[in-house]
């Protein structure tokens, strides 16, 4: 089949390379316009998908929005049999979805119908899910609501970060789309409708979601840190300076019973130890160890190195977020 590929970020690169590597006829690529760079905004950076497309001498389309008669004619000229969409960045209109004879497939990084929406990878960690995966679905105008054609699953480890899970799911998406297309071409693919009653939503990431609230349970604090590692980075304020936090490890079993008496008596956010094993911080229940930090304007470093340079001591306390921020973090 002639495949039209839609995608923009790093997450879409493994599926595109897999389709090419398996010998599929990729007739073109649709990706977001190049991003302006620098103060002058005159230099522009191509998307990761465009870089691969140019390396492979594939036709590239970069509409501001994927609509309009002129754009539709460009798609017709490519004569795709099917479209494959991976993190393209725009909602496709029905005319675009239905243009190829075999419709449009989407690679979604969750076990649908759970976690429809923009940020399912981060949401799976924030919600403490034991597993996630990739769903290949038939795209429809409604958000991530089409029939499911193929599903692959993966466990989420207790210390798995967003960055690690992102890369694992990108590779899994590559495998899943190749398998799904094989089933379609063999005439044995079976579409399974989603149960809308079981659907949940993973909203776009906002800054408030990455603000740490140490009054929460240590398990929750750890999830927030891992969900935004390496980007955008969960953050908190100490001595009036904002710092991003990484590498959260729950202290022992995460309960107050595992803490010594001085730590149990400390308010949430209090630093209880500083050494090469990280920064131990009291939470609303239990405590977490922060292994790495990134002060504003500085590179990521070990928490121990930052503490030495900043003079962080036992008894120092991270500021608690305002009620508005706390509600944003919990949403």
Structural class by secondary-structure content: alpha/beta
Which stretches of 5+ consecutive residues score pLDDT under 50?
323-331
- The CATH architecture designation of the largest domain is 3-Layer(aba) Sandwich
User: In percent terms, what proportion of residues is strand?
Assistant: 25-35%
Mean pLDDT: 94
User: How would the global form be characterised?
Assistant: elongated
Global Rg:
23 Å
Strand arrangement, largest sheet? 5-2-1-6-7-9-10
User: What is the number of beta strands?
Assistant: 17
Specify the CATH class of the largest domain.
Answer: Alpha Beta
List the secondary-structure elements in sequence, H or E: EHEEEHEHEHEEHEEHEHEEHEEEEHH
CATH superfamily of the largest domain: Formyl transferase, N-terminal domain
What is the number of domains? Answer: 2
What features would you describe in this structure?
It is a single chain. With 331 residues, this protein is of the alpha/beta class. The protein has 2 domains: 2-202, Formyl transferase, N-terminal domain (Rossmann fold, 3-Layer(aba) Sandwich); 207-330, Formyl transferase, C-terminal domain (Methionyl-tRNA Fmet Formyltransferase, Chain A, domain 2, Roll). The chain is built from 10 helices and 17 strands. The chain has helices spanning 13-21, 48-55, 69-78, 94-97, 120-126, 162-185, 218-227, 261-264, 303-310, 323-330, and strands at 2-7, 25-30, 35-37, 43-45, 60-61, 82-86, 104-108, 116-117, 131-138, 148-155, 201-202, 234-238, 241-250, 271-275, 278-282, 287-295, 301-302. It has a 7-stranded mixed sheet with strand order 5-2-1-6-7-9-10. Strands 12, 13, 14, 15, 16 and 17 form a 6-stranded antiparallel sheet that branches. It starts with a strand and ends with a helix. Mean pLDDT is 94; it is low at 323-331.
């Amino acid at each position: 089949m002639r495949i039209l590929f839609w995608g923009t970020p790093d997450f879409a690169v493994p599926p595109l390379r897999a389709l090419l590597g398996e010998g599929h006829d990729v007739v073109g690529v649709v990706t977001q316009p190049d991003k302006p760079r620098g103060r002058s905004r005159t230099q522009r950076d191509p998307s990761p998908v465009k870089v691969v497309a140019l390396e492979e001498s594939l036709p590239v389309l970069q509409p501001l929005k994927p609509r309009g008669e002129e754009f539709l004619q460009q798609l017709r000229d490519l004569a795709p049999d099917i479209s494959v969409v991976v993190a393209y960045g725009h909602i496709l209109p029905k005319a675009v979805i239905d243009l190829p004879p075999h419709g449009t497939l989407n690679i979604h990084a969750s076990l649908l119908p759970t976690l429809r929406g923009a940020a399912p990878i981060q949401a799976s960690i924030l919600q403490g899910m034991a597993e996630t995966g990739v769903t290949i679905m038939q795209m429809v105008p409604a958000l991530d609501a089409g029939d499911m054609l193929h599903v692959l699953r993966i466990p989420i480890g207790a210390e798995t970060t967003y960055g690690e899970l992102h890369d694992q799911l990108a590779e899994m998406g590559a495998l899943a789309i190749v398998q799904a297309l094989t089933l379609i071409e063999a005439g044995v693919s079976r579409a399974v409708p989603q149960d809308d009653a079981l659907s949940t939503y993973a909203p776009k990431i906002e800054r408030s979601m990455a603000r740490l609230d140490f009054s929460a349970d240590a398990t929750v604090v750890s999830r927030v840190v891992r969900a935004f590692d390496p980007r955008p980075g969960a953050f908190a304020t100490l001595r009036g300076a904002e710092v991003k936090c990484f590498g959260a490890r729950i202290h022992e079993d995460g309960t107050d019973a595992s803490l010594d008496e001085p730590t149990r008596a400390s308010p949430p956010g209090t630093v209880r130890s500083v050494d090469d094993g990280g920064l131990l911080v009291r939470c609303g229940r239990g405590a977490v160890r922060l292994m790495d930090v990134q002060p504003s304007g500085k590179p990521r470093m070990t928490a121990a190195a930052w503490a030495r340079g900043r003079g962080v001591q036992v008894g120092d306390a991270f500021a608690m977020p305002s009620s508005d921020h706390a509600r944003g973090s919990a949403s």
